[in-house]
Amino acid sequence: MSAEIIDGSAVAKQLLAETAARAKAFTERAGRAPCLATVLVGQDPASMSYVRMKQNRSAKNGIDSRKVELPETTTTDELIAAITGLSDDPQVDGILLQHPVPEQIDERAAFEAIAPRKDVDGVTMHSLAATALDLPSFHSCTPEGIVRLLDSYRVELAGKRAVVIGRSPILGMPVGLLLLGRNATVTYCHSGTVDLADQVRQADVVVAAVGRPELIKGEWIKPGAVVVDAGYNPGNVGDVEQAVAVERASMITPVPGGVGPMTIAVLLAQTVAAAEASLG
């Protein structure tokens, strides 16, 4: 058996087409395009490249970009002031703080300066709590992208056992909450899990989001399980040993081309949704 490949690029392309149509309709109605503001602290090459990519993708889909660049020496208070200004600006619909930030900055405090209605990256405590309580909010983009991928491939989650490897507040934790909201039985695993292989072997759905190359061995995958590899490590290597897992799973996301394209597609979709909500 060879797993069906879950094509994140194709699903993201469809979502972006829908988002572009909504952005056009908003622009015609509001007299301006939806606007995503990106805040970048310092000159990290990877972060700068990522921000440029987001700006290019925004422009292609009818969304304006505003880039706020701050020096490496920026303090927490200075960053909060910049984000607060964007939160108060009626011309800005979504705010993205590019992370990681320099070590002198309290990243959590900076995230909390983002107004919940503009938290299109789903990083605030408000968004996480709303996700847990199944209340209206913007979800963290990668977890939301994962669930949309599973929906696109008609993966039934209710009653299934899902194992999430990873517990970060913007990926592992919220994706588990979203799966729980779909009536899956969710087990969180992490660096302190002593029986990781046994937990994975029991899973109908595996979400690997730990950031360690090929930590999840292919032989651990239960035959017929659905595997979502949300890891991205140097050399285009995921968190799952794909060469072996693909022979055991029923469906699997590739690296690259699986989860990654969905993240920015969801970010832009949620930016347009924030813009639409601003018109009431």
UniProtKB/TrEMBL annotation:
The keyword Hydrolase applies. Residues 6-121 form the Tetrahydrofolate dehydrogenase/cyclohydrolase catalytic domain. Its EC number is 1.5.1.5, 3.5.4.9. Pfam families: THF_DHG_CYH, THF_DHG_CYH_C. Residues 140-277 form the Tetrahydrofolate dehydrogenase/cyclohydrolase NAD(P)-binding domain. GO terms for molecular function: methenyltetrahydrofolate cyclohydrolase activity; methylenetetrahydrofolate dehydrogenase (NADP+) activity. NADP(+) binds at G166, R167, S168. PROSITE patterns: THF_DHG_CYH_2 (PS00767). InterPro entries: Aminoacid_DH-like_N_sf (IPR046346), NAD(P)-bd_dom_sf (IPR036291), THF_DH/CycHdrlase (IPR000672), THF_DH/CycHdrlase_cat_dom (IPR020630), THF_DH/CycHdrlase_CS (IPR020867), THF_DH/CycHdrlase_NAD-bd_dom (IPR020631). GO terms for cellular component: cytosol. One of its GO terms (biological process) is methionine biosynthetic process. Pathway: One-carbon metabolism; tetrahydrofolate interconversion. Keywords: Amino-acid biosynthesis, Histidine biosynthesis, Hydrolase, Methionine biosynthesis, Multifunctional enzyme, NADP, One-carbon metabolism, Oxidoreductase, Purine biosynthesis. It catalyses: (6R)-5,10-methenyltetrahydrofolate + H2O = (6R)-10-formyltetrahydrofolate + H(+); (6R)-5,10-methylene-5,6,7,8-tetrahydrofolate + NADP(+) = (6R)-5,10-methenyltetrahydrofolate + NADPH. PANTHER family: C-1-TETRAHYDROFOLATE SYNTHASE, CYTOPLASMIC, C-1-TETRAHYDROFOLATE SYNTHASE, CYTOPLASMIC-RELATED. Belongs to the tetrahydrofolate dehydrogenase/cyclohydrolase family. Catalyzes the oxidation of 5,10-methylenetetrahydrofolate to 5,10-methenyltetrahydrofolate and then the hydrolysis of 5,10-methenyltetrahydrofolate to 10-formyltetrahydrofolate. Homodimer. This is Bifunctional protein FolD. The lineage of its organism: Bacteria, Bacillati, Actinomycetota, Actinomycetes, Propionibacteriales.
